[in-house]
Design goal:
elongated
Length: 216
Amino acid sequence: MSTEEDLKYTDQTAAIKRRFDPVMTEPIPARMYLKSPGWIEYARAAVVLAAGIAIGLAIPSFYETRNAADIAMQQLPIRAARAHLVYSPEVRHPVEVDAKQQDHLVKWLSKRLDTPLKVPVLTQEGFELLGGRLLPGGRGPVAQFMYQDATGKRLTLYVTPTRNAEEKLTSFRFAKEGDVSVFYWIDDQCGYALSGEIDKGTLAKVAALVYKQLES
């Protein structure tokens, strides 16, 4: 590079420094050091928290009823089958109130469940009412009615109040808990589960008869 070119670059550098050095050395404005007042941060946090709470409250309210219905449906056959396994083998005390006191049994259980109950008649399928009892359930008291055929086979009808239109499921569902088969459904007033250690086809016929009488 020639001496003449060196002088040109030196002049340009000097000109740049003269132009921009005053800007580079200016003091930083005081406002740049100022922080936001503490209450602003709290206000922002409060807004975010409020929004989060609103969303959190809205989501459960949307799903709460459906989840309650799902839980009720899942628990119904399990509770019914287990109650059947506990009481159906009993020889001397299979029921709390026997069929000879059917009127008293129905009135008592209806009062305890706060729901008018019916006792299906299953003689055309070969099952006679033995009686019933009061049981603890997931949402309060439930009723169990027990039937027996000529061979000693027993069926139990488990009844639990629902009183929730969104839980209505009039179609049958089938479940099995060990050796116990269960047909169950839910209407506006109650959930029903018919349980027995019998074949699915026979239990289905009896369940259809129960359903027909309860819905009539």
